[in-house]
Amino acid sequence: MPLHLTALSAISPIDGRYGTKCADLRSICSEYGLIRYRLIVEIRWFQALASEPALPEIEPMSTTANAYLESVIDDFDEGEAEAVKRIERTTNHDVKAVEYYLRDKIEHFDEIAHVSQFIHFASTSEDINNLAYAQMLRDARDTVVLPRLDQVIEALAVMADVYADYAMLSRTHGQAASPTTLGKEMAVFVQRLRRQRAALAEMPMLGKMNGAVGNFNAHMAAYPDADWPAITSAFIQGLGLEVSPATTQIEPHDYVAEFFHGLMRANTILIDLARDVWGYISLGYFRQATVEGEVGSSTMPHKVNPIDFENAEGNLGIANALMDHLAGKLPISRWQRDLTDSTVLRNLGVGLAHSTLSYDALLRGLGKLEADATRLDQDLEANWMVLAEAIQTVMRVRGIDQAYEQLKTLTRGKKVDSEAMNTFIDTLAITDEDKVRLKAMRPADYVGNAPAQAQRAVDAVQD
After folding, report:
1. Known active-site residue 297
2. Domain for residue 304, yes or no?
3. Predicted local distance difference test score (pLDDT) of residue 293
4. pTM given for the model
């Protein structure tokens, strides 16, 4: 027997295992959310037509009539969405079902019932759908995605601040390299993410309301003297969207691709972060706080696995794969219209959900981290050869030949300690001041302006 749909029987983990963690997207990106946005578009278009002097057959609505239409939106809940779905079972057309639902809602309101023929006036289904999806994507971005991303950025900024002076051995190509600070490495991610976040926030959401093939054919047949481009532009802008200047039956969805590609860039940066932090935990640079009752391994009791960063990396990969498909498919439509975008658009929220799951996992993981200053210092003290860069650079300044090659002979593939480095420095034809300065330098001191870079990133977030 088929199972009833519950969190346990849901096929997608977004609605099953992770359902409660994605709950804030349900009212926006679900079937209910889509129906509600369609209803908003239908009502706003009805109101816009009523306020247009060029359409004398429909008079301006009274305050009472407008208030009633607002109540239809405000009172729209899951029960009302079910009523729309019941109509759809007869119409076998989801947008037409919303139109009939709205007609039913106003049939007893005499002031507007007699002009109900202006509901869905001169509109193709895609006029309604594209504006519904644009509002869905905008609201999901503004109310869920960006606030979660901001939390990750803020958490990293805190780490950049706290660990700005924590010297750390760099590992270019996985090998010991010139030191940095732990805070500066977190600051790099802060700055990268802030740039992508700003671009995401500014991306316009576009819409069209120009009929079956984008030419206002029906509009002009009914009211040839009305300025339909101006009327529909004002209407679309009133929804908080920008006008898509030239379309076929469908809005081309280029902006959707742009948005998803932007979010994918932010997510790719976070994959980089998750992998780096995973590595720092493996090196012992970070300790993870233990959680009472939590198990790291089913057989090895000692383990505290970096599961939050692994979970984040996995979900970010799924999110990017889904959004890459949407970005690659949605801008393509045969001639003036095909329906391949319809089923794809219904997955608009899935990549967003996997993204926000990842952000939550990263926040949990970052919140458990504590830098191990002793381990950081041990690694630095075991790798005095990283000062070879500093010494050979001073040698170049003083005109000593073969500076790089001399340090290469001394250090490449070898472990050298402070005594060996100081002995080498004593042999150099450099100033006494140079020798004192170089011999006083420890690997932990050789961090350049890393602390200042960390602080700049922190200040930028705080501003």
Report:
1. yes
2. yes
3. 63
4. 0.94
